[in-house]
Design a protein that fits this description.
Elements (H helix, E strand, L loop, with lengths): L5 H4 L3 H5 L8 H10 L5 H8 L3 H13 L2 E2 L12 E6 L2 H10 L4 E2 L2 E8 L10 E4 L7 H9 L4 E4 L11 E6 L2 E7 H6 L3 E2 L1 H4 L4 E3 L4
Parallel strand pairs: 2-4, 2-5, 5-6, 6-7, 8-10
Antiparallel strand pairs: 1-9, 3-4, 7-8
């Protein structure tokens, strides 16, 4: 598992899962802002008002650090770690703001916004948002076949083939995980991350 920067190592998964999208994400967004050097009173006020899109974008960046990525996932030691979004412009905008200062084990994070029908080659993590109304299952299957960590935000996201699905309940953002889907993509998810998931679908033996 790739190590997190110091500001994020100090931030616990239990704290992530306790935040609410309206009051919100003081800890998780604060960790990313602090890592970027934004520690002014204005920055503190902004992160206290973080919307749901900011919480989800921060989750996506954090998910990447709790997955074992196969060596063949990267063409070179300097190749970027690509987080793509389809069907959620708000999260895409938040990611575009967050990722320029972030890296995963030396791989700079970049955000890519896709349209329905775009190829999923060269992507490591893909969020399929609720506005992606056509071909969600097909997109998820095509991405998984390429070893992509597929994340959704729909009621039956795991059934549709995603590995991680966002769940918003009682104004709290959480997530559920499908281990069979992760295994089919050749990905291994950290037990620390699984321990705070709302639900984990286990592989049948």
């Amino acid at each position: 598992m790739t190590c997190l920067p110091a500001t994020l190592r100090e931030f616990s998964w239990s704290a992530v899962c306790a935040v609410t999208p309206r009051r919100v994400a003081v800890l998780i967004v604060g960790a990313f802002l602090a890592a970027a050097g934004a520690v002014t009173p204005v920055a503190r006020a902004q992160r206290a008002q973080a919307p749901e899109a900011s919480v989800k974008a921060a989750f996506l960046c954090k998910f990447a650090s709790y997955v074992e990525w196969p060596a063949q996932a990267f063409a070179s030691p300097e190749a970027p770690f690509v987080i793509a979004v389809i069907g959620d412009d708000d999260v895409a905008a938040e990611l575009a703001r967050m990722v320029p200062t972030r890296a995963l084990a030396g791989h700079p994070m970049v955000e890519r916004t896709l349209k329905e029908g775009d190829p999923v080659d060269g992507i490591h993590l893909l969020l399929i948002g609720t506005d992606a109304v056509n071909g969600r299952a097909e997109t998820a299957r095509a991405a998984r076949a390429r070893g992509v960590l597929v994340v959704t935000e729909s009621q039956r996201g795991l059934v549709a083939g995603s590995i991680i699905n966002f769940v918003v309940s009682d104004d709290h953002v959480g997530f559920e995980v499908s281990l069979p889907a992760a295994e089919r993509s050749g990905l291994k998810i950290s037990s620390r991350m699984l321990s705070v998931a709302r639900r984990v679908v286990q592989a049948s033996r």
